[in-house]
Specification:
This protein is of the alpha+beta class. The protein contains 2 helices and 3 strands; from the N terminus they run ββαβα. It has one domain. A hairpin with a 4-residue loop joins β1 and β2. The chain is globular, with a radius of gyration of 14 Å.
């Protein structure tokens, strides 16, 4: 399994704040939750870039053999 240093950074966007950042893979969930709690009273705002999330979903589905 890759180490944290070998994992890609994941783009996180918040259209409400008009911000975009890259977060280490292992920190994505915490970073999104923290942003939304601090800036949006826990409501959804920040999220993984939807285009990247679609690509990740496709890769996982392919790896699991779900697209066969």
């Amino acid at each position: 399994m890759p180490t944290d240093d070998e994992l890609p950074e994941i783009p996180v966007i918040c259209e409400d704040c008009d911000t975009r950042t890259a977060v280490p893979f292992s920190e994505v969930e915490d970073a999104v939750t923290r942003h939304n709690e601090q800036l949006h009273d826990g409501e959804p705002g920040a999220e993984v870039d939807p285009e990247v999330l679609d690509q990740l979903n496709d890769l996982v589905a392919e790896d699991m053999g779900l697209l066969d």
